[in-house]
Each structure stands twice: as C-alpha cells, then as structure tokens.
Amino acid sequence: MEKRLDFLEALRGYAIIGVVFTHVSAKIEGLSVWLNNFGVQGAKGVQLFFWSVHLRYFIHYSTGLKKILW
User: Fold this and answer.
1) Which of 5, 26, 40, 56 has the maximum number of C-beta atoms within 10 A of its C-beta?
2) Spatial contact of 39 and 25, defined as CB atoms under 8 Å apart
3) Considering the entire predicted model, what is its pTM?
4) Cα–Cα distance between 29 and 41 in angstroms, integer?
C-alpha cells in the first residue's frame, strides 16, 4: 500500500485552485480589490504545484521508496 502525504496533496489542491481562480478572475470585470489581488497571486499556483510534486519525489526517494508513486 502506498503512503500518501496529505499535506503535499493539500498543497497541490491549493495550487490548482489558485491557477483556476486566476484564469476565471481574468475574465470577470469589476472584482473587488481583494479578489483581484487574490487572482493575481493565484498565478503562483504553478510554482507551488511544481514544488509540491518535486518535494514529494524527494521525500519518497530519500526514505528508500524507489517506486514512482503516480
């Protein structure tokens, strides 16, 4: 049975939500300043996604699990 790292799965989920919100907020005009800023910062979700994926591989590889967990 494969061990799941829930905090990394959560980070990937937040990253995906951020990217989706960025694309949606670009199409909607008249957003409040707070939502607009959140949409702009959501673009960092791509970097967060890549970091979480690479961190997952690093953790699994460093603990001796050589199998790719996808």
Assistant:
1) 56
2) yes
3) 0.70
4) 17
Share of the chain above pLDDT 90, in %: 9
For tokens 């590889």, the residue is: 61
- Asked if residues 44 and 18 have their Cβ atoms less than 8 Å apart, the reply is yes
DSSP 14-44: HHHHHHHHHHHHHH--S--HHHHHHHHHGGG
Cβ-count burial of 7 within 10 angstroms (0-12 exposed, 13-18 middle, 19+ buried)? Answer: exposed
Classify residue 45 by burial, with Cβ atoms within 10 Å: 0-12, 13-18, 19+.
buried
What span, in angstroms and rounded, lies between the C-alpha atoms of 38 and 35? 5
Nearest C-alpha neighbor of 22 from the set 47, 52, 53 = 47
